[in-house]
Design a protein that fits this description.
The protein is α/β, with parallel strands linked by helices and about 270 residues long. About 30% of the residues lie in helices and about 35% in strands.
Length: about 270
């Protein structure tokens, strides 16, 4: 008989996926470097500038920015991820600031050359709160500063999927599905340890879910950026981070928008 353990979001999702699982993906650190190079190119950034990394996770991309000479401030709601990011920077002797907090609560005033939200960290709060977040991002960056936002594509995540994978200490069941009416992606992970323990996230709203994310189309994002006071610059997909950058593709899981705080605001 399985022993069931329910974990909080921080204990389960943050530690398990954003650190343990992510770091086991072949080539993930090279992908991080490629992503940062891509951001530098499309946002026209230079070492020495200030970067605000919202939903920074364990600081993997922030570390690449810091290694290149950028001043990085990272914000994440998960204490375990902030602790891990701080340890990474300390281990490598890098300078950076990391804070535990809800990205919706940021209160910066024209302090950053760019703000980045990476790996699908946009869309967790619903339309109204996501719009408020974009306004806060606009205030946080300098005039002429850039916003680089990755988000789950509403065009791609339109089916239910279930997969099993073997881990060093057991097995993982990953289930995801898409709610067409609300354009919302939901996923959940269950882990069965070899010692007979089942790990799962604590139930919310009647189901066990790790992620509930609003998926936007690029036209929707363009409208939201405009309402927030940001000028749309370009869009891409994370399937191709080559330089020169290529336009977005329909089959991409995540899309990217780049926007700018106008030098001459209305």
């Amino acid at each position: 008989m399985l022993k069931v353990l329910e974990k909080t979001w921080d204990e389960f999702w943050a530690t398990h996926w954003r650190i343990d699982d992510r770091h086991s993906i072949p080539g993930i650190f090279e992908w991080d470097r490629q992503l940062v190079n891509f951001i530098e190119n499309v946002c026209q950034l230079s070492p020495g500038q200030r970067i605000l990394d919202l939903g920074c996770g364990g600081g993997d991309q922030a570390k690449v920015f810091a290694q290149k000479g950028y001043e990085v401030v990272g914000v994440d709601i998960a204490p375990s991820l902030i602790k891990f990011a701080q340890q990474q920077f300390q281990k490598e002797g890098l300078g950076g600031t990391f804070m535990i907090g809800d990205m919706r609560s940021i209160d910066y005033d024209a302090e950053f050359d760019a703000c980045v939200l990476l790996s699908g960290t946009f869309g967790f709060f619903g339309d109204v709160e996501d719009q408020k977040l974009l306004r806060s991002i606009c205030r946080a960056i300098k005039l002429g500063g850039k916003a680089f936002i990755m988000f789950l594509s509403a065009n791609r995540l339109n089916k239910h999927s279930t997969s099993w994978s073997e881990k060093k200490d057991g097995w993982e069941l990953n289930e995801s599905w898409f709610d067409t009416e609300t354009s919302t992606y939901r996923s959940r992970i269950f882990i069965i340890r070899k010692n007979g323990t089942l790990l799962r996230p604590k139930a919310e709203s009647g189901y066990h879910a790790n992620e509930v994310v609003r998926c936007y189309t690029i036209p929707e994002m363009r409208e939201m950026l405009s309402k927030a006071g940001l000028r749309y610059v370009a869009s891409y997909s994370d399937d191709d981070l080559s330089v020169p950058p290529q336009p977005p593709v329909p089959e991409a899981v995540r899309n990217i928008v780049v926007a700018e705080r106008p030098i001459e605001e209305k």
